[in-house]
Amino acid sequence: MNFQDQETGEIYAYELTSEKVVTKFLPNDEPQWTPVYKDEVAEYICLHHHCGFYHPGQKEFLLFGGYGRRSYSGKFISYHVSSNRWDTIPFSGDKIMPRFYAGVGVSPDYKHLYIYGGKGNEAGDQNIGIEYFYDLYQVDWDKRSIRKLWEQEPPAVNRVVSRDMVVSKDEQSIYFLSYPEYQPQSHIQLYRMNIADGNCEALGDSIPLVSEEIATNVNLYYSEKLGCFYCTIQEFEETGGSSIRMYSLLDVPVTLAEVRYYDLLETEDVDWLDYGVIAIIVAAILLLCLFVWKNKRRVAQSGNTGIAIAKEENMIADVAEVHFKDRNAIFLFGAFVVLDRDGKDITYMFSPKLRAIFLYILLNSASETGVLSSDMNELFWPDKTDDKVKNLKGVTVNHIRKILQELDGIELIYEKGHFLLKIQENFYCDYLHFSFLRKDKKLLQLREEEMGRFLKILIRGRFLNGIDHELFDYYKHELEEFILTFIPPEIEKAYKVADFMKVVHLCNVLFFTDALNEQAMFYAVRAFQKMGYPKEALKRYNSFINLYKKAMNENYPVKYESIPSLDE
After folding, report:
1. Whether domain 329-429 has CATH 1.10.10.10
2. Residue 452 half-sphere exposure, CB side, CA atoms within 13 Å?
3. DSSP E strands: which ranges in 195-279?
4. Shortest CA distance to 564 belongs to which of 502, 492, 494?
5. Which pLDDT does position 167 carry in this prediction?
6. Radius of gyration of the chain from Cα atoms?
7. Using 50, 70 and 90 to split pLDDT, how confident is the model at 256?
8. Exposed, middle or buried, 88 (CB in 10 Å: 0-12/13-18/19+)?
């Protein structure tokens, strides 16, 4: 957990479970973590999902609640930055029952804290049971007092809130994220709540969430400067891995009813507006054409550098269009992503175990052989009895088939003792498309258009990035061997014909497989220099030498000025 002093920019990370360690990050020319507090005889405290806020004027961080060791906390604990001291802070007035998963919001003047929701019980003992809370408390910071404002009736589906809430400027409303944390596959929703009476309304679209581990974290932030809400999600898996996602929503967020209001513009009563809309679209197209024409003239007059910039823009746009279809697709290069027929991200529907089984069938379907049913028994349920395996496999297959109903052109079938994915042309999978291109015996003589498609698949990222399972080691190794053989000659060819942006993309692909590939660094640096981007060239070099030092525990011997010219 952490908090930041906005005045100094310093970030403090703290750990309560062991020694109450606190370290400080100094954002200067040489960023580093500095220990500022450590108590080797401190009481062990475990406070999962506590909430807290930092008071910049008082230089004090205050946290409340949390769960650990089968107990719920109802205490306020503060850390004083100036004196590096932890204290338990008493408050007068109404008592807040022990809980975790509560949210805290701070008024713009820092005089009031608002604590809402969570779950726990009056005794703070998990053995007694658990209760979901829908109450709001106002905490007076100066008077150190608590006042309960109201308590709501529970909603149809129980939910918890993110630890940080956003209080509006007029201190009339609170924005918070909420979700049913007990559902492994659920959704996060943004709400605006009236402080006076607790009236809530849902805002924006929902966000998918896999909530299988207690460490899974959701939080809400607001940037007044950018006028934008940000949702961060950290999902943990049983294997210990985690993934992080971030979403943004422009202020002011709207309700579904407000969105539907604009549907009325399509009714006959307001048909006259269509002509205005058409006029605006036509004007926008004319302005765009004028901009493109002027841009082409400027590029034509600016010599080789302008040509390189245009190539960079075109290639980046092309890559975005081709290598990430917007619907009915599955991607294995980079992050594992599944988009349904409407373009909605349904990756969250695959739990880690379900994802591993599905990927194994998909990879084996590339060779059109599929997976022998008996092999799946040994691979995924080795310690289960035959009856249990049969039941588990049946449930798993039905679950996969149910998910695949959200896509077109892909079907899981059982044929001659094998499970196989049948694929049609209207479905896209980057790995299957890659495998098709790779089977071409004349791959090294592919036309420029086909080579472009090949590159656009690889450039998305490392194959099965973040998915560590021994079942996929063979596929990863085979792919890495191919890239190490195929990509270096393509880099040299692209450099010789002065296609420097392609050189950069090819080097990126090579770095996914071999992060310390010296030749890739040389070519990338020289390519950026040729295109007139010296800062990018230096950035690439510095990134390489920092990684080299961490891996080799020694400084990289080649100076920036000594990088070979590569022009001979």
Report:
1. yes
2. 14
3. 200-210, 217-223, 228-236, 242-250
4. 492
5. 95
6. 28
7. confident
8. exposed
For residue 452, with 0-12 CB atoms within 10 Å meaning exposed, 13-18 middle and 19 or more buried, which class applies? middle
Threshold 0.70, pTM exceeds: no
302, two tokens: 């600016």
CATH of 1-154, one of 1.20.58.460, 3.40.50.1100, 3.40.50.10300, 2.120.10.80: 2.120.10.80
- Hey, what amino acid is at 252? V
Q: CB neighbours (10 Å) of residue 133?
A: 22
Indicate if the pLDDT at residue 106 is higher than 90.
Answer: yes
Q: What angle do CA 247, 251, 254 make, to 5 degrees?
A: 90
Which DSSP category does 378 fall into?
Answer: H
Interatomic CA distance for residues 265 and 530, integer angstroms: 52
Per the CB < 8 A criterion, the answer to whether 210 and 184 are in contact is yes
In one letter, which amino acid is 56? Answer: P
Domain ranges of the chain: 1-154, 166-270, 271-301, 329-429, 459-562
Q: Are 411 and 404 in contact (CB under 8 A)?
A: yes
Q: Residue 186: helix, strand or coil by DSSP?
A: strand
Look at the block and give the residue holding tokens 């509560």: 102
Spatial CB neighbours of 112, under 8 Å, sequence gap ≥ 6:
106, 138, 139, 140, 141, 171
Tokens 């005089």 appear where?
Answer: 111
The pairs formed by 78-86 with CB atoms below 8 angstroms and a separation of 24 or more are 79/12, 79/14, 79/22, 79/37, 81/5, 81/12, 84/22, 84/36, 84/37, 86/20, 86/37, 86/39, 86/42
Tokens read off for 138: 């106002």
